[in-house]
TrEMBL record:
Enzyme Commission identifier(s): 2.7.7.108
Domain of life: Bacteria
Catalytic reactions of this protein: L-tyrosyl-[protein] + ATP = O-(5'-adenylyl)-L-tyrosyl-[protein] + diphosphate; L-threonyl-[protein] + ATP = 3-O-(5'-adenylyl)-L-threonyl-[protein] + diphosphate
Domain (Fido) ranges: 79-217
Species, as recorded: Bifidobacterium asteroides
Alphabetized UniProt keyword annotations: ATP-binding, Nucleotide-binding, Nucleotidyltransferase, Transferase
InterPro entries in UniProt: Fido, Fido-like_dom_sf
GO function term, MF aspect, one: ATP binding
Entry-linked Pfam families: Fic
Record-given protein name: protein adenylyltransferase
GO biological process, one term: regulation of cell division
Length: 236
C-alpha cells in the first residue's frame, strides 16, 4: 500500500468503528500510526490484532486493526452472502461458525428479516444487484437512490449477530468503488446515520439518500468533472 492508501485505510477503519459507538484505545491507535508511517507492516498489525482479540476488553482494538488490513486484502466480490461472510470472517476470524449468522431468538426484533430465511433473503438481494449490474455506470442521483435502497435491504436482512453494521459498510464501500464511486464515511454524523437507517427500516429512505449524497465522491474526479459533470457517472 502507498502512504496515502495506508492513511485512507486507517481513516476508514476509525470511522467505521465510531459509527457503531466504538472507540479504539491508545495501543491500537499507536499501531495504526506506525502502520501509516511505514514503521509497522501488515503482518505485525495482524499479529497484534490476534493478541488483542484474546483480551476481553480489547475486541474493539482488534476490529480496528483488522478493518485496516481488510482495505488491502481483497476477497471475491460476488455481491452475495458469501462475500458478506468473507468480510465478516476477516473481522472475527475466531468466531465459531455456528455463531456467525443471526439465529432465531424468542425475543427476535420483528423489524428485521426472519432469521430462518437469511439465505433466501441474501440470494434475492444478490440477484437484484446482479440484474442492476452491481450499480455500475449510473449517474450520481440514480446511484445514490439505488445504494440507499440496498443499504436499507441489507440492514433489514441483518445477517450477522456481531459486527453486522461494520460488515455492511465495508461491503457497500467495495460495491461503490467498483461502480465508480467512493464513500467518505467521515462525512456521516453517527447520530444522523443511526436515525437514517432506522427511518429506512420503517419505509422512508429519504434521510439515507441525503446521507449517502453527502458522502459520494467519484473514483476518477477528472473524468467526471471535465467530461461528464458532477451528476453524471462513469458511463459518460
Amino acid at each position: 500500500m502507498t502512504p496515502a492508501e495506508r492513511q485512507s485505510a486507517v481513516a476508514f477503519a476509525l470511522r467505521n468503528l465510531l459509527l457503531d459507538d466504538r472507540q479504539p484505545g491508545p495501543p491500537a491507535l499507536q499501531a495504526a500510526s506506525d502502520f501509516m508511517a511505514g514503521r509497522r507492516q501488515a503482518e505485525a498489525l495482524s499479529d497484534q490484532a490476534r493478541r488483542l482479540e484474546a483480551k476481553a476488553d480489547a475486541l474493539t482494538d482488534a476490529l480496528f486493526l483488522r478493518t485496516i488490513l481488510i482495505c488491502q486484502r481483497p476477497w471475491a466480490s460476488e455481491g452475495d452472502l458469501d462475500e458478506l461472510r468473507a468480510i465478516h470472517r476477516r473481522l472475527l476470524p475466531s468466531l465459531p461458525e455456528e455463531r456467525v449468522l443471526r439465529r432465531p431468538q424468542p425475543d427476535d426484533d420483528a423489524s428485521l428479516y426472519p432469521a430462518t430465511m437469511l439465505e433466501q433473503g441474501a440470494a434475492a438481494i444478490g440477484q437484484e444487484l446482479a440484474a442492476e449490474r452491481n450499480l455500475a455506470s449510473l449517474d450520481r442521483p440514480v446511484f445514490v437512490e439505488r445504494l440507499a435502497h440496498y443499504y436499507d435491504e441489507l440492514s433489514y436482512l441483518h445477517p450477522f449477530a456481531d459486527c453486522d453494521g461494520m460488515t455492511l459498510r465495508i461491503f457497500l464501500s467495495r460495491l461503490s468503488h467498483d461502480a465508480g464511486w467512493d464513500l467518505d464515511w467521515g462525512r456521516a454524523d453517527p447520530t444522523a446515520h443511526r436515525r437514517a437507517v432506522r427511518r429506512a427500516l420503517r419505509g422512508n429512505t429519504d434521510d439515507l439518500q441525503t446521507l449517502i449524497a453527502g458522502m459520494v465522491r467519484p473514483v476518477n474526479p477528472t473524468r467526471i468533472f471535465l467530461i461528464a459533470g458532477w451528476d453524471q457517472g462513469p458511463a459518460h
